[in-house]
Amino acid sequence: MKKKILIRIGSLRHGGAEKVLVTFLKNLPKDKYEIDLLLNLYSGKYLADVPDFVNVLYLNKGEMITTNRLQDIPTKAFRVIYQKLLKKFPKLLYQFILKGRKYDIEFAAIHGMRDEILNSPQKSSKKIVWIHNDLKKTEFHNYTDEEFRKFFGFDKIMVISEKIQKDFEVLAKNEEEKNKIVRIYNPLDTEEILVKSEVGSGKLEDRTEKTVPTFVSVGTVFPQKGFDRLLKVHKKLLDKGFPHQILILGNGYDFENIKKLQEDLEVTETSTLFGFTDNPYPHFKEADFYVLSSRYEGFPTVLFEAITLKKKIIATDVSGVKEMLEDGKLGLMVENSEVGIYEGMKKALQNPESFDKYEEQLENYEMPFNLENSVNSIVKIIDEL
Q: Fewer CB within a 10 Å sphere, N or C end of the chain?
Protein backbone atom coordinates (compact mmCIF):
# COMPACT_ATOMS: atom_id res chain seq x y z
CA MET A 1 0.00 0.00 0.00
CA LYS A 2 1.37 3.40 -1.02
CA LYS A 3 1.40 6.02 1.73
CA LYS A 4 -0.86 8.96 0.93
CA ILE A 5 0.78 12.31 1.68
CA LEU A 6 -0.50 15.88 1.66
CA ILE A 7 2.19 18.58 1.40
CA ARG A 8 1.29 22.24 1.91
CA ILE A 9 3.24 25.38 0.92
CA GLY A 10 2.23 28.91 -0.11
CA SER A 11 3.46 28.83 -3.72
CA LEU A 12 6.49 27.69 -5.70
CA ARG A 13 8.06 31.10 -6.15
CA HIS A 14 11.84 31.42 -6.25
CA GLY A 15 12.69 30.94 -2.56
CA GLY A 16 15.07 28.58 -0.77
CA ALA A 17 12.35 26.47 0.90
CA GLU A 18 10.47 26.14 -2.38
CA LYS A 19 13.58 25.06 -4.28
CA VAL A 20 14.49 22.54 -1.57
CA LEU A 21 10.97 21.05 -1.61
CA VAL A 22 11.02 20.61 -5.39
CA THR A 23 14.55 19.09 -5.30
CA PHE A 24 13.27 16.62 -2.67
CA LEU A 25 10.20 15.69 -4.77
CA LYS A 26 12.30 15.24 -7.94
CA ASN A 27 14.52 12.74 -6.14
CA LEU A 28 11.80 10.65 -4.52
CA PRO A 29 11.11 7.13 -5.79
CA LYS A 30 8.16 7.64 -8.19
CA ASP A 31 6.09 4.61 -7.27
CA LYS A 32 6.40 4.70 -3.50
CA TYR A 33 3.90 7.39 -2.44
CA GLU A 34 0.71 9.11 -3.54
CA ILE A 35 1.40 12.82 -3.10
CA ASP A 36 -0.95 15.80 -3.20
CA LEU A 37 0.86 19.14 -3.20
CA LEU A 38 -1.57 21.87 -2.12
CA LEU A 39 -0.52 25.45 -2.93
CA ASN A 40 -2.26 28.55 -1.64
CA LEU A 41 -1.33 30.20 -4.93
CA TYR A 42 -0.68 28.28 -8.15
CA SER A 43 2.35 30.28 -9.25
CA GLY A 44 6.12 30.33 -9.17
CA LYS A 45 9.19 29.48 -11.20
CA TYR A 46 9.51 25.99 -9.72
CA LEU A 47 6.06 24.78 -10.83
CA ALA A 48 7.59 23.43 -14.04
CA ASP A 49 10.03 21.30 -12.01
CA VAL A 50 7.41 19.42 -10.00
CA PRO A 51 7.55 15.76 -11.14
CA ASP A 52 4.51 14.31 -12.95
CA PHE A 53 3.65 11.78 -10.25
CA VAL A 54 2.86 14.63 -7.81
CA ASN A 55 -0.74 15.84 -7.99
CA VAL A 56 -0.78 19.66 -7.72
CA LEU A 57 -3.86 21.32 -6.19
CA TYR A 58 -4.39 25.00 -5.35
CA LEU A 59 -6.66 27.49 -3.60
CA ASN A 60 -6.00 30.42 -5.96
CA LYS A 61 -4.40 30.77 -9.37
CA GLY A 62 -2.30 33.55 -10.90
CA GLU A 63 0.79 35.51 -10.09
CA MET A 64 1.51 36.93 -6.64
CA ILE A 65 0.19 40.50 -6.29
CA THR A 66 2.81 42.65 -4.56
CA THR A 67 1.40 46.11 -5.38
CA ASN A 68 -1.68 47.99 -4.18
CA ARG A 69 -2.89 49.13 -7.59
CA LEU A 70 -6.59 49.88 -7.60
CA GLN A 71 -7.40 47.23 -10.24
CA ASP A 72 -5.61 44.52 -8.21
CA ILE A 73 -7.33 45.17 -4.86
CA PRO A 74 -10.52 43.05 -5.49
CA THR A 75 -8.46 39.97 -6.51
CA LYS A 76 -6.03 40.49 -3.63
CA ALA A 77 -8.87 40.88 -1.11
CA PHE A 78 -10.70 37.80 -2.45
CA ARG A 79 -7.56 35.64 -2.11
CA VAL A 80 -6.94 36.78 1.46
CA ILE A 81 -10.57 36.27 2.56
CA TYR A 82 -10.82 32.88 0.82
CA GLN A 83 -7.60 31.59 2.42
CA LYS A 84 -8.61 32.89 5.86
CA LEU A 85 -12.01 31.25 5.54
CA LEU A 86 -10.47 27.85 4.70
CA LYS A 87 -7.96 28.26 7.52
CA LYS A 88 -10.69 29.07 10.03
CA PHE A 89 -13.00 26.30 8.78
CA PRO A 90 -10.63 23.53 7.63
CA LYS A 91 -13.55 21.10 7.21
CA LEU A 92 -14.60 23.10 4.14
CA LEU A 93 -11.20 22.56 2.54
CA TYR A 94 -11.29 18.81 3.15
CA GLN A 95 -14.93 18.62 2.06
CA PHE A 96 -14.53 20.39 -1.27
CA ILE A 97 -10.95 20.85 -2.54
CA LEU A 98 -9.60 17.67 -0.91
CA LYS A 99 -12.91 15.84 -1.27
CA GLY A 100 -12.73 12.11 -0.54
CA ARG A 101 -9.01 12.15 0.13
CA LYS A 102 -7.62 10.44 3.20
CA TYR A 103 -4.00 10.99 4.19
CA ASP A 104 -1.48 8.94 6.15
CA ILE A 105 0.84 11.95 6.47
CA GLU A 106 0.23 15.70 6.36
CA PHE A 107 3.31 17.78 5.84
CA ALA A 108 3.83 21.52 6.39
CA ALA A 109 6.75 22.30 4.05
CA ILE A 110 7.29 25.68 5.78
CA HIS A 111 6.64 26.87 9.35
CA GLY A 112 3.92 29.24 8.09
CA MET A 113 1.69 26.24 7.37
CA ARG A 114 1.79 25.05 10.99
CA ASP A 115 -1.81 25.83 11.92
CA GLU A 116 -3.27 24.62 8.61
CA ILE A 117 -1.76 21.16 9.17
CA LEU A 118 -2.31 20.95 12.93
CA ASN A 119 -5.98 21.92 12.54
CA SER A 120 -6.63 19.25 9.93
CA PRO A 121 -9.88 17.38 10.59
CA GLN A 122 -8.02 14.16 9.74
CA LYS A 123 -6.90 13.42 13.28
CA SER A 124 -5.40 9.99 12.50
CA SER A 125 -2.81 11.32 10.02
CA LYS A 126 0.79 11.80 11.17
CA LYS A 127 1.97 15.42 11.00
CA ILE A 128 5.39 16.73 9.93
CA VAL A 129 6.73 20.30 9.77
CA TRP A 130 9.87 21.52 8.00
CA ILE A 131 11.45 24.57 9.69
CA HIS A 132 13.70 26.59 7.38
CA ASN A 133 14.04 29.78 9.41
CA ASP A 134 15.46 30.95 12.72
CA LEU A 135 12.20 31.65 14.55
CA LYS A 136 14.00 32.99 17.62
CA LYS A 137 14.76 36.23 15.78
CA THR A 138 11.69 37.84 17.35
CA GLU A 139 12.43 41.15 15.63
CA PHE A 140 11.21 39.44 12.46
CA HIS A 141 9.06 36.51 13.52
CA ASN A 142 7.58 37.34 16.92
CA TYR A 143 7.57 33.70 17.98
CA THR A 144 7.08 33.67 21.73
CA ASP A 145 7.89 30.51 23.70
CA GLU A 146 4.17 29.78 23.73
CA GLU A 147 4.02 30.02 19.91
CA PHE A 148 7.13 27.87 19.69
CA ARG A 149 5.55 25.23 21.90
CA LYS A 150 2.70 24.76 19.39
CA PHE A 151 5.13 23.05 17.01
CA PHE A 152 5.32 20.14 19.45
CA GLY A 153 1.83 19.22 18.22
CA PHE A 154 3.61 17.67 15.22
CA ASP A 155 4.86 14.08 15.23
CA LYS A 156 8.17 15.21 13.68
CA ILE A 157 9.83 18.63 13.57
CA MET A 158 12.42 18.70 10.79
CA VAL A 159 14.96 21.50 11.30
CA ILE A 160 17.78 22.50 8.98
CA SER A 161 20.45 23.80 11.35
CA GLU A 162 22.06 23.13 14.69
CA LYS A 163 20.98 26.56 15.99
CA ILE A 164 17.29 25.88 15.25
CA GLN A 165 17.61 22.39 16.73
CA LYS A 166 18.94 23.84 20.00
CA ASP A 167 16.15 26.44 20.15
CA PHE A 168 13.59 23.63 20.02
CA GLU A 169 15.43 21.32 22.41
CA VAL A 170 15.50 24.04 25.08
CA LEU A 171 11.70 24.19 24.97
CA ALA A 172 11.11 20.43 24.86
CA LYS A 173 9.45 19.32 28.10
CA ASN A 174 10.49 15.68 28.00
CA GLU A 175 12.42 13.06 26.07
CA GLU A 176 9.43 12.25 23.87
CA GLU A 177 9.26 15.86 22.68
CA LYS A 178 13.03 15.98 22.20
CA ASN A 179 12.80 12.91 19.98
CA LYS A 180 10.39 14.74 17.69
CA ILE A 181 13.17 17.13 16.65
CA VAL A 182 15.35 15.91 13.83
CA ARG A 183 18.01 17.81 11.89
CA ILE A 184 18.04 17.24 8.16
CA TYR A 185 20.47 18.85 5.75
CA ASN A 186 18.62 20.50 2.87
CA PRO A 187 18.64 18.34 -0.27
CA LEU A 188 21.06 20.10 -2.63
CA ASP A 189 22.04 18.82 -6.07
CA THR A 190 25.73 19.77 -6.14
CA GLU A 191 26.27 17.96 -9.45
CA GLU A 192 23.57 20.08 -11.10
CA ILE A 193 25.16 23.29 -9.70
CA LEU A 194 28.57 22.40 -11.15
CA VAL A 195 27.11 21.53 -14.57
CA LYS A 196 24.93 24.66 -14.70
CA SER A 197 27.84 26.90 -13.70
CA GLU A 198 29.54 26.00 -17.01
CA VAL A 199 26.55 27.07 -19.13
CA GLY A 200 27.27 30.27 -21.04
CA SER A 201 30.39 30.80 -18.99
CA GLY A 202 32.18 34.00 -19.98
CA LYS A 203 29.01 35.97 -20.76
CA LEU A 204 29.33 37.94 -17.54
CA GLU A 205 32.39 39.69 -18.92
CA ASP A 206 30.40 40.93 -21.91
CA ARG A 207 27.81 42.58 -19.70
CA THR A 208 29.96 44.11 -17.00
CA GLU A 209 33.26 45.85 -16.51
CA LYS A 210 35.54 43.08 -15.31
CA THR A 211 38.49 45.35 -14.54
CA VAL A 212 37.23 45.80 -10.96
CA PRO A 213 36.43 43.16 -8.30
CA THR A 214 32.90 41.76 -8.50
CA PHE A 215 30.67 40.80 -5.57
CA VAL A 216 27.60 38.66 -6.22
CA SER A 217 24.59 38.02 -3.98
CA VAL A 218 21.62 35.76 -4.72
CA GLY A 219 18.23 35.48 -3.05
CA THR A 220 14.57 36.40 -2.96
CA VAL A 221 14.35 40.19 -2.81
CA PHE A 222 12.75 41.00 0.52
CA PRO A 223 14.05 42.71 3.70
CA GLN A 224 15.35 39.46 5.27
CA LYS A 225 18.10 39.25 2.63
CA GLY A 226 19.54 42.70 3.44
CA PHE A 227 20.12 43.85 -0.15
CA ASP A 228 19.40 47.40 1.05
CA ARG A 229 22.38 47.08 3.42
CA LEU A 230 24.51 45.70 0.60
CA LEU A 231 23.77 48.65 -1.69
CA LYS A 232 24.42 51.19 1.08
CA VAL A 233 27.76 49.53 1.85
CA HIS A 234 28.56 49.50 -1.88
CA LYS A 235 27.97 53.26 -2.04
CA LYS A 236 30.12 53.91 1.07
CA LEU A 237 33.00 51.87 -0.32
CA LEU A 238 32.85 53.69 -3.67
CA ASP A 239 32.86 57.03 -1.83
CA LYS A 240 35.94 55.88 0.10
CA GLY A 241 37.74 55.21 -3.16
CA PHE A 242 37.32 51.41 -3.49
CA PRO A 243 36.18 50.66 -7.06
CA HIS A 244 34.14 47.44 -7.41
CA GLN A 245 30.81 46.22 -8.71
CA ILE A 246 27.80 44.43 -7.22
CA LEU A 247 25.52 41.88 -8.87
CA ILE A 248 22.20 41.01 -7.20
CA LEU A 249 20.28 38.05 -8.63
CA GLY A 250 16.72 37.45 -7.51
CA ASN A 251 13.20 38.79 -7.52
CA GLY A 252 10.58 39.38 -4.83
CA TYR A 253 8.10 41.87 -3.45
CA ASP A 254 10.85 44.31 -2.43
CA PHE A 255 12.42 44.47 -5.90
CA GLU A 256 11.02 47.91 -6.80
CA ASN A 257 12.17 49.36 -3.44
CA ILE A 258 15.69 48.03 -3.98
CA LYS A 259 15.67 49.41 -7.53
CA LYS A 260 14.62 52.82 -6.20
CA LEU A 261 17.34 52.69 -3.52
CA GLN A 262 19.87 51.85 -6.24
CA GLU A 263 18.76 54.98 -8.14
CA ASP A 264 18.67 57.18 -5.02
CA LEU A 265 22.21 56.12 -4.11
CA GLU A 266 23.27 56.79 -7.72
CA VAL A 267 24.90 53.38 -8.09
CA THR A 268 23.08 52.14 -11.23
CA GLU A 269 26.36 52.14 -13.17
CA THR A 270 28.25 50.03 -10.62
CA SER A 271 25.52 47.63 -9.46
CA THR A 272 23.24 45.37 -11.49
CA LEU A 273 19.86 43.98 -10.41
CA PHE A 274 19.32 40.95 -12.64
CA GLY A 275 15.90 39.91 -11.34
CA PHE A 276 15.17 36.19 -11.31
CA THR A 277 17.33 33.94 -13.44
CA ASP A 278 16.83 30.18 -13.90
CA ASN A 279 20.56 29.71 -13.70
CA PRO A 280 22.51 32.07 -11.42
CA TYR A 281 25.57 29.79 -11.28
CA PRO A 282 27.68 31.22 -14.14
CA HIS A 283 27.42 34.62 -12.37
CA PHE A 284 28.40 32.96 -9.10
CA LYS A 285 31.34 31.31 -10.75
CA GLU A 286 32.72 34.37 -12.47
CA ALA A 287 32.32 36.81 -9.59
CA ASP A 288 35.31 37.31 -7.28
CA PHE A 289 33.37 37.21 -3.98
CA TYR A 290 30.02 35.92 -2.73
CA VAL A 291 28.25 38.13 -0.15
CA LEU A 292 25.49 36.93 2.18
CA SER A 293 24.02 40.14 3.61
CA SER A 294 21.01 38.52 5.36
CA ARG A 295 19.46 39.88 8.55
CA TYR A 296 18.34 36.35 9.54
CA GLU A 297 18.27 32.87 8.03
CA GLY A 298 17.63 29.26 8.96
CA PHE A 299 20.34 27.52 7.02
CA PRO A 300 21.13 29.56 3.89
CA THR A 301 21.32 26.93 1.15
CA VAL A 302 22.83 29.57 -1.13
CA LEU A 303 26.03 29.40 0.96
CA PHE A 304 26.40 25.71 0.18
CA GLU A 305 26.02 26.65 -3.50
CA ALA A 306 28.84 29.20 -3.07
CA ILE A 307 30.94 26.57 -1.25
CA THR A 308 30.27 24.06 -4.06
CA LEU A 309 31.64 26.62 -6.54
CA LYS A 310 34.57 27.35 -4.18
CA LYS A 311 33.84 31.07 -3.90
CA LYS A 312 35.49 33.52 -1.55
CA ILE A 313 32.67 34.16 0.92
CA ILE A 314 31.70 37.09 3.15
CA ALA A 315 28.66 36.26 5.31
CA THR A 316 26.77 37.90 8.17
CA ASP A 317 26.75 35.79 11.32
CA VAL A 318 23.16 34.55 11.07
CA SER A 319 21.74 31.12 11.95
CA GLY A 320 23.48 28.31 10.08
CA VAL A 321 26.48 30.34 8.90
CA LYS A 322 28.84 29.31 11.71
CA GLU A 323 28.00 25.68 11.09
CA MET A 324 28.31 25.94 7.29
CA LEU A 325 31.55 27.93 7.29
CA GLU A 326 32.98 25.70 10.04
CA ASP A 327 33.52 28.55 12.49
CA GLY A 328 35.03 30.80 9.85
CA LYS A 329 37.39 28.21 8.36
CA LEU A 330 35.74 28.27 4.91
CA GLY A 331 34.88 31.97 4.64
CA LEU A 332 34.81 35.32 6.39
CA MET A 333 32.06 35.71 8.99
CA VAL A 334 31.13 39.31 9.82
CA GLU A 335 28.90 41.01 12.36
CA ASN A 336 25.22 40.99 11.38
CA SER A 337 25.07 44.72 10.59
CA GLU A 338 25.82 47.25 7.89
CA VAL A 339 29.14 47.95 9.62
CA GLY A 340 29.98 44.23 9.57
CA ILE A 341 29.27 43.95 5.83
CA TYR A 342 31.27 47.14 5.20
CA GLU A 343 34.32 45.84 7.10
CA GLY A 344 34.15 42.45 5.34
CA MET A 345 33.93 43.91 1.85
CA LYS A 346 36.58 46.52 2.62
CA LYS A 347 38.92 43.72 3.72
CA ALA A 348 38.24 41.90 0.44
CA LEU A 349 39.11 45.02 -1.57
CA GLN A 350 42.01 46.22 0.55
CA ASN A 351 43.58 42.90 1.39
CA PRO A 352 42.34 40.25 -1.11
CA GLU A 353 45.19 37.86 -0.27
CA SER A 354 43.67 37.43 3.22
CA PHE A 355 41.06 35.23 1.46
CA ASP A 356 43.69 32.80 0.14
CA LYS A 357 43.42 30.69 3.31
CA TYR A 358 39.70 30.10 2.64
CA GLU A 359 40.42 29.06 -0.93
CA GLU A 360 42.98 26.55 0.30
CA GLN A 361 40.44 25.06 2.74
CA LEU A 362 37.76 24.87 0.03
CA GLU A 363 40.08 23.19 -2.45
CA ASN A 364 39.70 19.74 -0.87
CA TYR A 365 36.50 20.37 1.06
CA GLU A 366 33.78 17.74 0.86
CA MET A 367 30.17 18.47 1.68
CA PRO A 368 29.04 17.01 5.03
CA PHE A 369 26.07 15.47 3.19
CA ASN A 370 24.91 14.61 -0.28
CA LEU A 371 21.58 14.77 -2.07
CA GLU A 372 20.91 11.04 -1.70
CA ASN A 373 21.55 11.06 2.06
CA SER A 374 19.26 14.05 2.61
CA VAL A 375 16.41 12.54 0.59
CA ASN A 376 16.89 9.15 2.30
CA SER A 377 16.76 10.79 5.76
CA ILE A 378 13.38 12.37 4.96
CA VAL A 379 12.07 9.16 3.37
CA LYS A 380 13.08 7.27 6.55
CA ILE A 381 11.04 9.72 8.70
CA ILE A 382 8.01 9.31 6.42
CA ASP A 383 8.31 5.51 6.37
CA GLU A 384 8.72 5.15 10.14
CA LEU A 385 5.76 7.37 11.10
A: N
